[in-house]
Amino acid sequence: MANTIISFEAVDKRYGDTIALNDINFELEQGKFYTLLGPSGCGKTTILRILAGFTSATSGEIKFKGQKINNLPANKRKVNTVFQDYALFPHLNVFDNVAFGLSLRKVPKAEIRRRVLEALRLVQLTGYDDREIAELSGGQQQRVAIARAIVNEPEVLLLDEPLSALDAKLRTAMQVELRQLQRRLGITFLFVTHDQGEALAMSDEIFVMNNGKILQQGNPVDIYDEPINHFVADFIGESNIVKGKMVKDYLVSFVGKQFECADAGMRPNEPVEIVLRPEDLVLTDVTKGKLTVTVDTQVFRGNIYEIMSHDSANNQWLIHAVHKATIGQKVGISFGPEDVHVMRFGESEEEFDARLETYEGEEE
Amino acid sequence: MKKRFSWQNLYLIFVFALLYVPIFYLIFYSFNRGGTMTHFTGFTWQHYTELFSDSRMIEIVVDTLLIALLSSLLATIIGTLGALQIYSVKRPVVKNAILSLNNILMVSPDVIIGASFLIFFTFLGFKLGFGSVLLSHIAFSIPIVVLMVLPKLNEMNLSLIDAATDLGATNFQVFSRVILPYIAPGVFAGYFMAFTYSLDDFAVTFFVTGNGFETLSVEIYARARQGISLEINALSALMFVFSLLLVVGYYFLNQYNSSKRTRKRQRLEATQIK
Amino acid sequence: MKRFNPAYSFLYILWIVLFVIAPLVLIVYQSFFDISGHLTLANYQAYFGSGTYLKMTLNSIWYALLITLLTLLISYPTAYWLNQTKNKQLWLLLIILPTWINLLLKAYAFIGILSQNGSVNHFLTFVGIGPQQLLFTNASFIFVAAYIEIPFMILPIFNAIDELNPSFVNASRDLGATNWQTFSKVIFPLTINGVKAGVQAVFIPSLSLFMLTRLIGGNKVITLGTAIEEHFLVTQNWGMGSTIGVVLIVAMVIIMFVTGERRKKGRKGE
Questions:
Q1: Residue (of C191, C207, C161) closest to C261 by Cα position
Q2: Please, what CATH class does the domain formed by A4-225 belong to?
Q3: pLDDT at residue C215 in the model
Q4: Which of A135, C56, C111, C130 is the most exposed place for a label (fewest CB within 10 A)?
Q5: Which of B117, B79, B101 shows the shortest CA–CA distance to B203?
Q6: Containing domain of residue C134, as a range?
Q7: Are B213 and B133 spatial neighbours (Cβ–Cβ below 8 Å)?
Q8: Interface with chain A: mutation pick from C173, C175, C190, highest number of A CBs within 10 Å
Q9: Is the dihedral of CA C58, C60, C63, C65 positive or negative?
């Protein structure tokens, strides 16, 4: 806890009757890469704007190193922002854009020059300092925006969907670069995105948001493997979600059959939802499979075949298979107990964590 | 929104007062029983009844409206065709040249337009009067119509035309069924601007009107040079109400159009979300 | 529209030839004739030779500058704060509305307001200063001209501020700028094109407001416009009038050039 740099305590944000943020609580530690992930309109950008000081919370406390900063104006906060549209000043060239913050603070000319060139070097734009903004490509503008923010040596860097305007290839490259840059600088990054692939690839910690609430917080692997509810499972990666019943600890029933699983701590016969990731499903003979499905469609994706199929109860099953199947044919699918993830209805993150602790300790 | 006192709002109130006080001052004294614009001695409709029985003034009002209606209509037709012409020119050099020529009358001072038109009409031996005033008003209204229509044409998606042609429309059908409905708001705005330009003009008309034909502006100028006449106040009150109705009508038509547009845009954006 | 029939735009082309090119050519042509119809350079000699015309021109430019400056000083804050109001489009419409009132009526109103017994003098008497000569002064001309031009200055500035991406303001604050620094280093430079357009819209007409010099200025202020009107409609010396007209056109071209948008290639948002 000593390293906590930012904390939100019971933060609400309302615009008239609409609730943009509902009881947001979280803490950010120094030097980590955090991501706010959620669909558009979920409130992730609002959190960023409140933290940057562009808008204020309706209630709750925002703390920076333990100090309440609710009423501190944006220009006094030790955070800097990389805007979604970059917001590079069109009347200034690259150098002057990056130097903007330093020159306001009356930093000596020579030092400004040194630090600006260093920042440009960090974002691999050495030699671009006297270019006009309009002459730069989208990816270059994006780097200037990052340089302009980091040159001020903020303790927290806020990034508002900075990669959304880039094409797919550049985006992947920038993901790696951003992550490396964060490690090199050692400062906290708070990254906002609606792209789950981006979030999984870059983050130390992810906050999954929807409808103004943080649904789940965790490292990418946990979020992917143990989504807390239907929304998170559906939003992160691709999933097959079916209704089922928890027969007893480590035994769950769905599609009329009983299966071993790795979950426990629920009421006997509690109705639940089951998540099975398509890449965890293995195609096999009807006789060897745990479930029997009929193949509907098949799309070749280069590395895998994406197979849509349905079972006897008309549940859709998406399978990522290495080998081809035949459309219209019945096939078996198999999976291990670890692949079956059980989700309770309406379970909060705290309850989820508490339940996990009751039985996970035993296994080790 | 902010109910609290602020210097900003005070300043805005000051500017609005500055803009409107003279106008309301005029209107206020149009009801003055005394004949001056300085001491209000009592309420009367007298100046209005005088105005309505002034057959010369009524004739001038009718002439002014006639000029405005005719000139804006003709300017809208010619200007729209001109905009289509500019739009269809492909070479940027030619396009910019035509646009520059188009804008000359937009930026020229009124006296230059008036003086050069006067020379022009005299040079041709054209008799000054209704005809010369009408032609002048058409002439200085055309560029504004072009400037209102052209952006509409430029924002029009070219595949609309290709699609219409592909579906079997003739050139004229493409124009009447696709282009015209699309640019209609621009044409309408151009007509409105041309109309107000014409009503408002004084300097150009003053130069080319000759003797025997007058518009309201010229008449007001002549009377104002002789001093205060509360009939003019009554006239300005009526003109203020007329302008207000015009503007409010235009505003609501525009609101209606733009709300249609916004809805269209929202729908577009909704389909773009991945 | 690959096959737009040029026949339709015949009238438009005719308009360009007859009402744009021909009058311009004619006014230049006319400037080389004296009052009795002889081809001569005398008008230009008179204009550049005698100090009166040059002084009048400088005077006219000086007044136009004052009017433009006064208008700008009043309009920029108005446009800026107008942008922060709710229903700003409606307020803007109210700013523009007075431009639909005939200019002469507004000038006429000031004859009443500024007259010897007018409201302003009533007020001055009331606060103990006593009545002043207000009408037919240089100051009254500048004030009324500014009054008439204010909406034309507010409109382009308002639009420029309205189009300003709010991210720029946020970015500036984010980088540590105070309100004033944000204004002077970001907002004003980025809305300078609106200011230029406004200056263009105000300065050029201010050179030629002859009706105001007559009604409000009491013929004390002679602008280029007044001189042109005088020569064309009073003394009938069209040649000299045209010469001054040519000077005004040259002045206009210079203003357009100075305030013209020198666009940087491919600037965002254009």
A1: C191
A2: alpha beta
A3: 84
A4: C130
A5: B117
A6: 67-259
A7: yes
A8: C175
A9: negative
Whether C105 and C177 have beta carbons less than 8 Å apart is answered as no
* Minimal CA separation from C204 to chain B, in Å: 6
CB under 8 A, 24+ apart: contacts of A179-182: A179/A33, A181/A122, A181/A123, A181/A146, A181/A150, A182/A33, A182/A157
Best of B19, B101, B150, B166 to disrupt the C interface (most C CBs within 10 Å) is: B19
Residues C112 and C216: beta-carbon distance below 8 Å? no
Would the pLDDT of A47 be above 50?
Answer: yes
CATH code for the domain in which residue C172 is found: 1.10.3720.10
Tokens of A165: 């305007």
Residues of A in contact with C165 (CB under 8 A): 85, 87
Written as six digits, the tokens of B176 are 């009447």
> A202 with A33: CB under 8 angstroms?
yes
Q: Which of A53, A83, A91 is the closest to C171 by Cβ? A: A83
Listed by start position, the domains of chain A span: 4-225, 240-363
In a domain, C37, yes or no: no
Burial annotation B162-180 (CB, 10 A radius, 16+ → b, else e): eebeeeebeeeebbeebbe
Q: What letter would DSSP give residue A265?
A: -
Tens of pLDDT, residue by residue over B8-50, are 889 999 999 999 998 888 888 888 887 777 778 888 888 898 8
* Inside any domain, residue C237: yes
Contact C208 B111 (CB under 8 A): yes
DSSP tag of A124 = T
Does the beta carbon of A83 lie under 8 angstroms from any beta carbon of chain C?
Answer: yes
Q: Does B206 touch chain C (CB under 8 A)?
A: yes
Which residue does chain C place closest to A100, by CA atoms? Answer: C175
Helix axes C119-126, C103-114, angle to 10 degrees: 30
Residue B139 has pLDDT above 70, yes or no: yes
Q: Is residue C45 part of a domain?
A: no
Nearest-angstrom CA–CA distance, B43 and B38: 14
Say whether B36 and C117 touch across the interface (CB within 8 A).
Answer: yes
pLDDT at B37: 76
Classify the phi-psi angles of A65: left when phi > 0, otherwise alpha if psi is within -120 to 50, otherwise beta: left
Residue ranges of A 138-197 with Cβ closer than 8 A to chain C: 148-149, 152
pLDDT band at C261; cut points 50, 70, 90:
low
B120/C23 CB distance under 8 A: yes
Chains that touch B (3 or more CB pairs under 8 A): C
Structure tokens belonging to residue C232? 């064309």
> pLDDT per residue over A246-256, tens digit each?
998 889 999 88
CATH homologous superfamily for B62-233? MetI-like (1.10.3720.10)
- Collapsing DSSP to helix, strand or coil, A222 comes out as helix
ipTM above 0.95, yes or no: no
Classify residue A72 by its DSSP letter.
Answer: S
Classify strands A270-276 and A240-248 as parallel, antiparallel or unpaired.
Answer: antiparallel
For A128, A141, A144, A326, the CA distances from A131, given in Å and listed in that order, are 5, 11, 11, 57
Closest among B14, B68, B18, B30 to B240, alpha carbons compared: B30
- Measured in degrees and rounded to the nearest 5, phi and psi for residue A94 equal -60, -50
> Given A79, A80, A134, which is nearest C267 (Cβ)?
A134
Instruction: Read off the pLDDT of each residue in A234-263 and give the average, rounded to a whole number.
Output: 89
Query: Residue C188 falls within a domain, yes or no?
Result: yes
Contacts of C228 in chain B (CB under 8 A): 111-112, 115
**Residue A291 pLDDT greater than 50, yes or no:** yes
Instruction: Put residue A283 in one of left, alpha, beta given phi > 0 → left and psi -120 to 50 → alpha.
Output: beta
3-state secondary structure of A164: coil
Structural domains of chain C, count: 1
Q: Which residues of B touch C22 (CB under 8 A)?
A: 120
Residue with tokens 């029997």: A292
Beta strands A213-218; A33-37: pairing state = unpaired
